[in-house]
Specification:
The chain has 306 residues and is α+β, with helices and mostly antiparallel strands. The protein has helices at 30-38, 40-46, 128-147, 175-183, 185-192, 283-300, and strands at 18-26, 50-53, 60-64, 71-79, 84-91, 94-104, 111-119, 164-171, 197-199, 204-206, 211-213, 216-218, 225-229, 233-238, 250-259, 264-272.
Length: 306
Amino acid sequence: MTSLTSLQKEDLTMPPGFDHTASFPVPASPDRAFQALTDPKQLQRWFAENISIDPRVGGSFTFSGRGSIGSGGAITAFDPAKREVAFHWTLLDVPTEARVRLVAGDTPETSKLEIEHRVLGLLRAHNPQHFVSDMWRHYHGNLRDHVREGTEVVLPDLSSDRPEVRVSIEINAKPKKVFRALLEPELMNKWLFGSAKVDVAKREISYGWSYDIEGRKVAGGPTRIIEIVENEKLVTDWPDWRGDPDKPTTRVTWTLEALDGGNRTRVTLVHDGFAHPIDRGDYQQGWRGFAGRLAKVAEALPDESI
């Protein structure tokens, strides 16, 4: 990646940094996605509440308010033909440069977002690489939702000292059906795509997720039931998805509220307990997707099943 223009001078007192690279699919053409990266009105919807951008080399890109983290600065590259832009970005008081480009996807209506983010210094985070990775997972999720018309985009308060993910959905099914779909493995597997196991008596729960990450095997999802109120509430733990034993275990709360005389249900999910606001990554988008699939499973249950 091209070196930082105004930060190229060596500073032997600066702690070593790192380069983060990532690639994400985007459900929009490269031109459409590049507009979302550079148009201030669109950036306000998925990136940050307050946007100021002068899209040219030597111009500036600044942002603040909900959704923002750190502060922007000078634009060091801007090439609409290559659908590429780079800019200075201060994260946790550390100078960095982000470079993003859009390349063609597998179809004319898809593209690929390529990220190169150079960090020049030591980010004071539990794991600096994970910090930057989670940040881009969050922003990619919002960009993806933005280019999908009609999809809700959430700008979280990334300065909050009590970060959380909150998703609410109304389901055309009685609370008892929804509760069954939350706890019966055969039904859970239909919306989790896992191999669920539940022992309410022992307060044990598993989604059956297993994957390799950073050279170790990780069992993702919850491990224990913290609180359970039949047809009303379910609270589980949620260990770090990367399997980092030093990261705090978070919590997922499902609350069921009867609507329309008990024939419909409002489900509210709150995922909280994150050590840092950016640890939420793309949970907002992920939980919204799971909630939508949960609704389909619960609504498909016949009345006689309850």
